[in-house]
Design brief:
The chain is α/β, with parallel strands linked by helices. Helices cover 40% and strands 17% of the residues. Helix 7 packs across helix 13.
Length: 428
């Protein structure tokens, strides 16, 4: 089968690699990992060195390229790029309610516990050895991909030439509840910006929330839409373009039917597409556990929200300001999202799990020898700049570029500039 093709001047080749599900049992169950190799025509002819892209998430496949453009165009001047679908995502032994339906709750939890950054890095190393043997490659991590980069530097730096991070330097030691306390504050700030930009959006959002307080509404896929799940749309406030997307959706929230206003199909369909927990459940399962090292998350975001720290996010009616939430996961999501419901027991088991392996070796990072460059965004809603800089101080050979020019999705908006800046920091 010919697995090579060209998309708008971008030369592509598909790879599939078999890796162990559990590296403690290397001869037991295997996973299939999909990697798309992309390069310019010149880069392919010259067999340029590899750069591995680690996607944000957790739980999302690598972006599907549209051609030789964006950050890939810039990176392709010096590399052949490997777009890795992390285990459990897209074409890499995908995880969802459909593929997990024959497991009981405990089996689901045991299986899902093997899909964090530690095993993503083990997969990458397994692939490196199959692809180039003892040769080294470079890596770039966006968002959660940056967490994977720090894990890579901790556990397998022998395979690396250089490393790049965009919007994804994690805390090395802080608990999940510390992260979410900081996150709720940043989300509130993004709400203020959104409602200042679109003043009438506050009443629009209140009208939707009040409707949901009084009427039972299902999305086209069967998921229950509640005030709490409507608030989850705030996850998009941290992205360039997300404010406008949310506003335009609110504009079409209602339609008149027989003289009565009701939520429109267009709006409900948009909500289904913007809240993709049903199709990408790893995010809901493991988002909190990416911070866990020998302790449980115990629904950290929910506990912070229920405490005195964030009461302003609870909406009870028109007399109160409406606020969207952000990149948080709550236990009730496994009661409302139709494809998360069968996975509720596993979610509770994972939230209670307190023996998660350590992800970062502080001594190794203190003595890191791999040249590393990171873009840190001052206004990043998802990754706290103070925690990022705290970590940067503890990692040797890590250079930071701190900028206010981009939101969290900067690499998608102006990837050529960002990659050029980071590459230049290490290579002149």
């Amino acid at each position: 089968m010919n697995n090579s093709y060209i998309i708008n001047e971008l030369h592509c080749r598909d790879h599939y690699f078999n890796v162990p599900l559990d590296y403690q049992l290397p001869n037991d169950k295997q996973l299939s990992i999909f990697v798309r190799e992309v390069a310019s025509e010149e880069g392919l002819a010259k067999q340029l060195p590899y750069l591995v892209y680690l996607q944000g998430g957790p739980g999302f496949g690598a972006g599907r390229p549209s051609g030789l453009d964006g950050w890939i165009k810039e990176a392709a001047k010096n590399y052949r790029i490997l777009l890795l679908d992390q285990r459990g995502t897209a074409k890499s032994s995908p995880i969802n309610a459909q593929t997990l339906r024959y497991f009981d709750g405990q089996q689901q939890a045991d299986y899902l516990s093997l899909f964090r950054a530690d095993n993503i890095v083990r997969d990458a190393e397994c692939i490196r050895q199959q692809l180039i043997g003892d040769g080294k490659w470079s890596i770039i991590g966006q968002s959660f991909g940056g967490f994977c980069v720090l894990r890579y530097l901790s556990a397998a730096s022998i395979g690396l030439k250089q490393a790049f991070i965009t919007g994804g330097i994690p805390s090395l030691t802080r608990r999940a509840e510390d992260v979410y306390k900081a996150t709720f504050k940043r989300v509130q700030d993004k709400n203020k910006l959104f409602f200042a930009k679109f003043p009438h959006a506050q009443q629009m959002a209140k009208d939707v929330a009040d409707y949901l307080l009084n009427d039972s509404v299902q999305l086209p896929n069967g998921t229950l839409l509640t005030v709490e799940s409507f608030q989850l749309l705030g996850i998009h406030l941290g992205m360039t373009g997300g404010h406008e997307e949310l506003f335009y959706m609110l504009e079409q929230a209602f339609v008149e039917v027989n003289g009565k206003a009701e939520l429109s199909f267009v709006f409900k369909d948009s909500v289904s597409r913007m809240l993709d927990f049903d199709s990408n459940p790893i995010f809901a399962f493991l988002h909190e556990s990416i911070y866990c090292q020998e302790f449980s998350s115990n629904w950290a975001a929910h506990r912070v929200r229920e405490s005195d720290y964030a009461p302003q996010f609870d909406y009870a009616g028109q007399q109160q300001e409406f606020l969207f939430t952000g990149e948080m996961v709550f236990p009730w999501m496994f009661e409302q999202f139709v494809n998360l419901k069968p996975l509720q027991q596993a979610a509770e088991l994972l939230a209670a799990k307190d023996d998660w392996p350590m992800l970062y070796d502080l001594d190794v990072l203190k003595n890191n020898t791999v040249p590393t460059a990171a873009a840190v965004y001052r206004e990043d809603m998802y990754v706290d700049i103070n925690y990022s800089l705290e970590t940067a101080e503890r990692v040797a050979n890590l250079k930071t570029w701190i900028t206010s020019d981009y939101d969290h999705n900067g690499i998608r908006i102006d990837g050529e500039t960002i990659f050029s800046q980071l590459h230049g920091m290490l290579n002149g």
